[in-house]
Amino acid sequence: MNPKSIWKQIALLGVVVLVGYFVVFNWVERRRFVKGPWRLTFSQTNSSPMLLINQTTLGISNVTIIFSGVAVTTNTSETVAFGQGRAVPFDLPFGKCIFLDPLFLPGTAVCEVFGHQIQVMPRVLTIDGVERPWSSGETISLTKKPVSQTQR
To answer: Residue 71 gets which letter from DSSP?
Structure first.
């Protein structure tokens, strides 16, 4: 075999591998972000804190969780999009995000709000470990959770 032929083959293989890498990388990146993040709006209704959950690509809209018997000091409305990874736990307008996995959006987010653990994931909504199927437009009312001996 001619030494020039070997180098041409190696160079051609390198170009093919490089092009393949960029094609696969861009395809994977598009798949990661195409569905978009969870959007949680923290607000109030009738002086009770409210959490509004939306994820348009999955067809989940206006799932409302109202926290009865709880008072908040602010009257502002803020929407949080869970599209970028960050260190947890982090503060939310009320409560904390204790787990966040945005590797392939919409991913999974777990929030602790007024003693309740709320987990949003594409398959199901869980509240305090109980699964609920997604139902757009649903309103869920939660009461203040009593403080147990271990939480004091």
So the answer is: -
Q: What is the mean pLDDT of residues 2-22?
A: 90
> What is the bridge-based pairing of β-strands 60-68 and 78-81?
unpaired
**3-class DSSP state for residue 108?**
strand
C-alpha torsion angle, residues 97, 99, 103, 106 (rounded to 10): -60
Token representation of residue 91: 């503060």
CA 12 from centroid of its chain's CA atoms: 42
Distance CA 70, CA 77 (A): 16
Alpha helices in the chain (DSSP H): 3-33
| Per-residue pLDDT reduced to its tens digit, 26-41 | 999 888 888 999 999 9
